[in-house]
Amino acid sequence: MSNLDRQAALSVCGGRGFVVAEPVRELLTPRHVRLGESTEVRRLLPNLGRRMVGAWAFVDHYGPDGIADEPGMQVPPHPHMGLQTVSWLHEGEVLHRDSLGSLQQIRPRELGLMTSGRAISHSEESPKPHAGFLHGAQLWVALPASDRHVEPHFEHHADLPAVTARGLTATVILGELDGVPSPGTAYTPIVGADLALTAGAEARLPLDPDFEYAVLSMSGEAEVDGVPVLPGSMLYLGCGRTELPLRAASDAGLMLLGGEPFEEELVMWWNFVGRSHEEIEQARQDWMAGPRFGEVKGYDGGRLPAPELPPVALKPRGRVR
């Protein structure tokens, strides 16, 4: 999914200097952003308080939106570089097209994973006809320097493994959880998991103490390490945990995001992740003027123009503002 904010901010993130080395309970409040005519997202990362969780660098939560009489998601062709996009749905469907020629309908709890590498473009839209509700999350994973220029590719995994306990099913989206790996390609030590809890469930999820973690609430009433987390909010948990207590007052859906703290400092602007202002500026010029990002065929509409770069000097600020 694109960052459609026309006032896209240029920021520097990453580095280990601001990683919280012990367990914490830091509740992150979302920023509301419009995507097209009928979709509003709650943006949790980058956040005023925190920019990354492991290699996770961007998190949008949207829905549940009633779209029976609406066009639903309509994100025109737009570019990406230096990152992976993770599409995750609880309700509805999204049709993915990209400049490699991929055409894939993504359904609830199926992984759509696009590795942009050096350059790719794609579009996302609700198919015609489509379901009456749309609910999901769109996430980005920053690629490390050793892999950020890989050839772009797209993966679709309809069957994902799960870790189960009484009242809990943890579907492994990316990376590894409790020794269970996802089939999706990962480039850093990372974990992403969908947590489905039944009403009254109490469980303890095993964690890696070397990872930092956060939990996004998708739906229902749940407590994470004793903290109530409402849908559309995210609780940052820091490092140093070997397990995570979970409790659900109703059926609830959460997403666990974690990973080894990201070593490198990144420049992230609009839909690009790079290492310098000059690299971002060149990517913008290439999208507006040339064939570097390829062509998305079959989308009914024009491609998304890039916003203007702000005239600011970059000031490294690490992982938090």
End-to-end Cα distance, whole Å, is 24 Å
> Helix fraction?
under 10%
The assigned structural class equals: mainly beta
- Count of DSSP-assigned helices: 1
Write the layout of secondary structure elements.
Elements: E1 11-14, E2 23-28, E3 31-35, E4 39-45, E5 56-66, E6 74-80, E7 83-91, E8 94-98, E9 103-106, E10 111-115, E11 120-125, E12 133-142, E13 153-157, E14 162-165, E15 168-177, E16 180-181, E17 190-197, E18 202-206, E19 212-219, E20 222-224, E21 227-229, E22 234-238, E23 243-248, E24 252-259, E25 265-269, E26 272-274, H1 277-289
Antiparallel strand pairs: 1-25, 2-22, 3-4, 4-5, 5-12, 6-11, 7-10, 7-12, 8-9, 8-11, 10-13, 14-15, 15-16, 15-17, 17-24, 18-23, 19-22, 19-24, 20-21, 20-23, 25-26
Structure description:
- By secondary structure, this protein is mostly beta strands.
- It has one domain: Jelly Rolls, CATH 2.60.120.10.
- The chain is built from one helix and 26 strands.
- Strands 2, 14, 15, 16, 17, 19, 22 and 24 form an eight-stranded antiparallel beta sheet that branches. Strands 3-4-5-12-7-10-13 form a seven-stranded antiparallel beta sheet, with no helix packed on it. Strands 6-11-8-9 form a four-stranded antiparallel beta sheet, with no helix packed on it.
- It is globular and about 55 Å long.
- It holds the Pfam family Pirin_C.
- Residues 41-141 form the Pirin N-terminal domain.
